[in-house]
Automatic annotation (TrEMBL):
Aldehyde dehydrogenase domain sequence ranges: 13-475
Catalytic residues (positions): 250
Gene Ontology MF term list: aldehyde dehydrogenase (NAD+) activity
InterPro entries referenced in this protein's UniProt entry, alphabetically: Ald_DH/histidinol_DH (IPR016161), Ald_DH_C (IPR016163), Ald_DH_CS_GLU (IPR029510), Ald_DH_N (IPR016162), Aldehyde_DH_dom (IPR015590)
Domain of life: Eukaryota
Protein name stated in the entry: aldehyde dehydrogenase (NAD(+))
Keyword Oxidoreductase tagged: yes
Stored Pfam families: Aldedh
Keywords tagged on the record: Oxidoreductase
Family: Belongs to the aldehyde dehydrogenase family.
Reactions catalysed: an aldehyde + NAD(+) + H2O = a carboxylate + NADH + 2 H(+)
Principal EC category: oxidoreductase
Known EC number: 1.2.1.3
Amino acid sequence: MTIETRLFINNEYVPSSSGETIPVFNPANDNLVTDQVQVASKEDVDKAVAAAAAAFKTWRCTPSAERAAIMLKYADLLEQHAEEIAQLESTDMGMPIMFTRMMAASQAASFRYYAGLTDKVHGETFNEDGDGLFKMITYEPLGVCAGISAWNGTQLSIGWKIAPAVAMGNTFVHKSSERSPLSAIYLGKLVKEAGFPPGVINLLSGGGATGALLASHMGIAKIAFTGSKAAGRKVQVAAAQSNLKHVTLELGGKSASIVFEDANIENAIKHNSQNFLINNSQACSAASRLFVHESIAPTFIDGLKQAWMGLTHALGEPADDKTFLGPMVDKAQAERVNEYIAGAKADGIEVLVGGEEQKRAGHYVTPTLLLNPGLESRVYKEEIFGPVLVVRTFKTEEEVIELANDTSYGLSGIVFTSDIARALRVASKLEVGTLSINSAHWPSKFTSWGGFKQSGYGRESGLEAVKEYVQSKSIHVALKV
Ligand code: NAD
């Protein structure tokens, strides 16, 4: 397959005006995939925003049925080309193909879901109420919206950002991560073939500098950012210092998984081993702090250890259908995770499984299970974004709620128990935006996704996401003049 590396602006693939490029390596073997990924310069960003602004004038008043038909055609095309998309995403970020196929499918699902909402966001009316006025609220699109994605779920992120935006009549400029640009660039030809008019969807590549240009752009009405707390903070500042654009932030997490003594042990082990390790735990919602009730701790931790030891053999080539664990996204991320593990060992934290560096080629990290890290240790407090799970025990429900909430993050959580009253009681007290009972937390198109505290604000996915791409207008009509 020829790999597209150019920018997609106004329905055309174009090279970067600056000629700057970035290389992409396959993290499974460090082979160069391409050194030609074009970096969007200020001029390119301005062109993309101008194209989106021009397209907004007509796209916002294109009949909803027409917008929906184009979105549905695009979803069909995504499905027809799912294998190429999955291969590209697997090649540049190392996610096993069995999961990148799901990512590609998730983007199609988002476009179908939001296509069904193009004609369902209606206004409200209020009768005269002694004030001589008939009143109404209408909802209007914001204008040119931008999205910046992290590398760990490009296709999902694109679906969550672009689909609700264009469904509501906005136009879009998206920037993928410099660490996983290929599957995003590929989408341009499908956007055009689906019939999106020029400028409605523009796809840029580049790093933090290109992201900063979007965040500070005077022509962008809203930016939906997914990434680290540090970069999210910069985006918010840039938005405030430019045109006060709307901002939503999907940031990191250090989520808790709580296993009570009455939990189904086998199920809790599965979700805290295999399911925690999906995508090498390079998932914002990964519950990387596990709390186990002390009365079941010896048996549970023994079972967990066995499950983790089994999974250390699951490492393989991401392109292989059977591979469950691929490499980390790149050298820097593998080194970062290995540094956390080495630091934990140097601090004397007990290593139950893993702990040693991989010798094989590529940027693989050994899944590592750590017992009883101190409450102030880095592995306990900081988001590692890799296959490292820390385990502690607890005595009471009150204590574990306090432990779980003792973090600046608030993205996700899991509660394992067979007592539904306890599950809901604990769920109501956890300071998180997404939570599952008796299962690892995965996104659903029906529910919203987003964080409490420093995991960000605003919501993607579900019905709630459309509110992020409209603004209300109140209109009053005097009944007697
Ligand atoms: P990152 O912050 O390094 O990069 C994210 C994106 O921001 C990239 O596209 C990057 O080019 C861009 N960027 C960097 N500096 C910027 C700046 N100053 N202005 C504008 N854009 C800038 O994060 P990452 O390493 O790609 O992703 C990992 C992080 O993302 C983790 O913290 C993870 O938890 C988080 N994440 C959150 C969610 C969620 O839905 N909450 C989903 C996926 C990842």
